[in-house]
Amino acid sequence: MNKPDLHPESLMMSYGYRPEWSEGAVKCPIFQTSTFVFKTAEEGKAHFELAYGLRQPKEGEQVGLIYSRINNPDLEILEDRLGLWDEADDCAVFESGMSAITTVLLEFLQPGDVVLHTNPLYGGTDHFISEILPKYGIESVEWNSCDSYEALQQRLEAKLQGKRLGVVYIETPANPTNTLYDIEWGKRLAEHFSSDAHKAVVVVDNTYLGPLWQHPLKHGADLVAYSATKYIGGHSDVIAGAVSGKADYMQRVKVLRTFLGNMAGPWTGWLLLRSLETLQLRMERQAKNARLVAEFLRGHPKVEKVHYLGFLDENTPEQYAIFRKQCKNAGAMLSFDVKGGEPAAFRMLNSLKLVKLAVSLGSTESLAQHPASMTHAGVPPQRKAEMGITDKMVRLSVGVEHPDDLIWDLKQALEQA
Ligand SMILES: Cc1ncc(COP(=O)(O)O)c(C=O)c1O
């Protein structure tokens, strides 16, 4: 099979697995085992030498299976397949999106460093950067969508004063406002503040557009992080995370994962392998539905504004330019402001019949929630206001249901608002 000629969606069913390894089973079985038997003591020694980097691999030699915290067939095959979407050198799967993100931040930051991050961030990431990292002497600088490149560079210069810029952390589109950030700016800033002795690492959380609709590595990111709980898992039945990227960075990420022990287990790996087979089908249907839903909401008298990437145009030239450069699709996430603030938004949410009132996103079923009091409840009010996360905002993750049914449900719920 000539891999480079095949599209990722064609490879999701077979890549990295051979039926003869498992009694002819068409599907990769669940390797529900904590440890693996070595044929000989010499083989065990050789596996450990490679896993611990004690010697260089011989021609064609790979790390053999040792122990499921280090490697497991379900995870390795999953990582090979997932990395195809981003054309990454390597991928690592974690037990949650937060463990993927925090492992990357801990690996590439050290006490005294500064992290530059976009605004808003997913609430958990925001909390980790603003509340946990300062305990280890790591400070942050915010990047807002209204910042010019020069203003940003000056703000960083003022903050750094001899300190290292460790990581440029970009969440684009941002959860829940759909604000876009230019990854190339992040790369330029990272290069500007890097030296021969130290290179700042650009990390992009690509959860919102998933592996299909945005490829941050092509725009200058070193690593791309996912909450695989969302589109990659896609069925609201698994919590997982992933990081893909350049080989040298990924090696460091995998070593820290081994010692934090926050890799995904074989059952999670198997579930995600199954999900990957329908990733493209699900995401395409979700995106089509989202456009129809967004158009319905835009025309509704009780809706003040719809934050949907498909509505960007020349009236918002900077955001539109980033969209055209970076995004292959407007995706299936949108938020909208309900006239009448929190009481009206709550009445609407409480009246939904088909759409579920729940946090999370990217799944087959549509989900709605109130970011200000739910996913972003931990963000201080002043910062929420700056980010545009208001009491009137409802976030909607559009699923694969019939679009007419979704629109019917939203219509009857908005009547109650
Ligand atoms: C953009 C984004 N990044 C990261 C996460 C964290 O992922 P997880 O819940 O899988 O730990 C989330 C979760 O909602 C998210 O929306």
Structural overview:
The structure is a single chain. The chain is built from 15 helices and twelve strands. It is 39% helix and 14% strand. The model has no long low-confidence stretch (mean pLDDT 96). The strands form two sheets. A seven-stranded mixed beta sheet has the order 1-7-6-5-4-2-3, with helices on both faces. A five-stranded mixed beta sheet has the order 8-9-12-11-10. It has two domains: 209 residues, Aspartate Aminotransferase, domain 2 (3-Layer(aba) Sandwich); 135 residues, Alpha-Beta Complex (Aspartate Aminotransferase, domain 1). The site of pyridoxal-5'-phosphate (PLP) has 16 residues, from α4 and α5.
What attributes characterize this protein structure?
417 residues; alpha/beta; Aspartate Aminotransferase, domain 1; 2 domains; 7-stranded mixed β-sheet; 5-stranded mixed β-sheet; 39% helix; 14% strand; globular; binds pyridoxal-5'-phosphate
